[in-house]
């Protein structure tokens, strides 16, 4: 079965996907949302790739260098062995800033014998819209296109450039390198310099992981997920991407294909909450500044998503010339969902603001701005919470009164009250408590369905929705509240399919999905754990972990029947939920050990 057997490398400026055979099949330069330079992922024939080709008798294995974002692909025929160490450089400079250039190093490490390989170096610039020509120069190979738009890419290498570009066989006798650069280098690279880049980048990631707590249970999974989330943060602005890819389909051959190289306020806020839980407060502070910069006017409504450089207009377009992943058209850039109204984003944002103030109140530089944003959010929520919206799943049909959106409106006011307490603003507390009580009463009255014995997807409906499982996580109901327990049971009965969850089963704009939204299964596991069914939750969690790819990475969706990974990849949403579940199980084990030692 074809699966998303890819590893991600990145340096918080851009990212690349490399297959389990060492083929570089997706990369956009100079940053995450630029046009692609390699896009075989979206079109086998036209997209462009950078492949390392060995004879059939070579066994190929792949893993990450432990606790880093350096991907190691090993090629061995028993006697002749070499490794490919793929990474995007990232490390501290003497100035205190980070060196994170728009480039990929493919360091070729000689292990034993005289291994042989050839190279298919075939970048296709600007989403492969026009022809890309390749020219061998004294110091590099330059790839160039000027049909649609002028663009260039440079390849530096220790190997014979003509052998590389012509795909001729190379015999490896010592370490060598390939360096793919968006910009021409001022200083000529060398194997020694690339080895130094590798070591510096390795140290950067090892140091980063060293600042992350160690957990008793599922620590490797937590670390790999945390590293993946870090790679999806854009250093320049503090934005967090939903995923580094576009148009990987939720179902093969269908049209649910979207561009995820943007910052959704909801996804990013949830990621930041988890990352700060892991002790990385700088990421949280940069993201808060990203939000502050987006809200210049007190009455300005927040969009659900923005470009990674704070762009507000994300016009959706179709790349008709690309066949799509496994023939799944269309391939899209941009995302029309930026125009949608989703009332839940205010609650999610307020939750993050409160968390940061609560955890780092002595270290928050922008308290006055955050208080202004808090007051602005309360004003907007109070004015609009009774209106319908598109909901968390971005239904493109008519607006409805979605339960999740209402609960998050309540969260917005609840967290604003807590922020007011931190800042000692007592008059606001009284005023806002009345709004909070009104929203809470409205939800209990309209979202609870006696016939279904559960909180339902939207007011007046009979449909269940996995998003309501978050009511407990956000503190709206207690885990042992009979209404929440029965909601979890109803969702298990109606939305679970072989241990994987539907988001919902009522038909949307595209019909009934045939794949599970990965994060929903994590939410369900968390809910089971919270209502006391911990053994069952753990069994489901271990089963779900087994569906990751060979490197422990998850996409957005999993096919119910084949368990194949589908949707954009790797998905920040999936990995943040994995971390939340794993931390719960780990804490439980720690608590049990403490109780055992006391008794």
From TrEMBL:
UniProt keyword Hydrolase, yes or no: yes
Highest taxon of the lineage: Bacteria
Domain Trehalase-like N-terminal residues, every copy: 8-132
GO MF term (any one): hydrolase activity
GH15-like domain boundaries: 222-582
Keyword line: Hydrolase
Protein name as annotated: Glycoside hydrolase family 15 protein
Highest classification ranks of the organism: Bacteria, Pseudomonadati, Bacteroidota, Flavobacteriia, Flavobacteriales
């Amino acid at each position: 079965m074809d699966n998303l057997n890819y590893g991600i490398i990145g340096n918080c400026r851009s990212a690349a996907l490399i297959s389990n055979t060492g083929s570089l099949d997706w990369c956009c330069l100079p940053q995450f949302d630029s046009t692609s330079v390699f896009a075989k992922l979206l079109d086998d024939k036209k997209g462009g790739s950078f492949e390392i080709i060995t004879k059939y008798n070579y066994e190929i294995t792949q893993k990450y260098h432990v606790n880093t974002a350096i991907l190691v692909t090993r090629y061995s025929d028993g006697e002749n062995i070499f490794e490919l160490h793929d990474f995007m450089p990232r490390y501290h400079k003497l100035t205190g800033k980070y060196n994170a250039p728009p480039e990929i190093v493919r360091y070729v490490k000689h292990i034993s014998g005289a291994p042989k390989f050839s190279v298919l170096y075939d970048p296709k610039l600007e989403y492969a819209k026009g022809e890309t020509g390749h020219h061998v120069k004294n110091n590099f190979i330059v790839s160039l296109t000027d049909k649609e738009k002028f663009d260039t890419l440079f390849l530096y290498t220790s190997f014979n450039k003509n052998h590389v570009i012509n795909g001729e066989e190379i015999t490896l006798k010592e370490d060598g390198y390939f360096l793919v650069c968006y910009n021409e280098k001022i200083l000529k690279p060398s194997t020694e310099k690339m080895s130094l880049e590798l070591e510096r980048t390795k140290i950067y990631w090892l140091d980063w992981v060293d600042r992350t707590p160690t957990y008793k249970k599922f620590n490797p999974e937590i670390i790999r997920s945390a590293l993946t989330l870090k790679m999806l943060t854009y250093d320049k602005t503090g934005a967090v991407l939903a995923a580094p890819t576009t148009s990987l389909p939720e179902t093969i051959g269908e049209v649910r294909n979207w561009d995820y190289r943007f910052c959704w306020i909801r996804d990013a806020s949830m990621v930041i909450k988890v990352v700060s839980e892991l002790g990385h407060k700088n990421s949280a502070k940069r993201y808060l500044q990203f939000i502050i910069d987006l809200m210049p006017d007190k009455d300005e409504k927040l969009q659900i998503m923005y470009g990674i450089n704070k762009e507000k207009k994300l016009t959706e377009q179709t790349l008709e010339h690309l066949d799509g992943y496994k023939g799944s058209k269309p391939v899209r850039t941009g995302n029309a969902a930026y125009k949608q109204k989703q009332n839940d984003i205010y609650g999610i944002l307020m939750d993050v603001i409160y968390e940061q103030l609560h955890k780092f109140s002595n270290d928050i530089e922008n308290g006055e701005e955050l208080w202004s944003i808090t007051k602005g959010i309360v004003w907007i929520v109070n004015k609009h919470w009774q209106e319908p919206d598109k909901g968390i799943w971005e239904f493109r049909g008519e607006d409805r009164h979605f339960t999740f959106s209402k609960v998050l409106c309540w969260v917005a006011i609840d967290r604003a009250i807590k922020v007011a307490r931190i800042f000692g603003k007592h008059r606001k507390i009284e005023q806002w408590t009345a709004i909070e009580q009104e929203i809470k009463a409205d939800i209990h009255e309209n979202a609870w369905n006696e016939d279904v014995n559960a909180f339902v997807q939207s007011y007046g409906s009979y449909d269940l929705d996995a998003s309501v499982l978050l009511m407990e996580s956000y503190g709206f109901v207690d885990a042992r509240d009979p209404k929440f327990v029965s909601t979890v049971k109803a969702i298990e009965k109606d939305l679970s399919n072989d241990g994987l969850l539907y988001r919902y089963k009522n038909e949307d704009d595209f019909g009934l999905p045939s794949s599970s939204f990965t994060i929903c299964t994590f939410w369900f596991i968390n809910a089971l754990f919270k209502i006391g069914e911990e053994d069952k939750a753990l069994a489901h969690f271990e089963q779900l972990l087994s569906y990751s790819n060979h490197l422990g990475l998850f996409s957005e969706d999993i096919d119910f029947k084949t368990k194949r990974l589908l949707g954009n990849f790797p998905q920040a949403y999936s990995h943040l939920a994995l971390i939340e579940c794993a931390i719960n199980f780990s804490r439980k084990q720690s608590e049990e050990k403490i109780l055992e030692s006391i008794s």
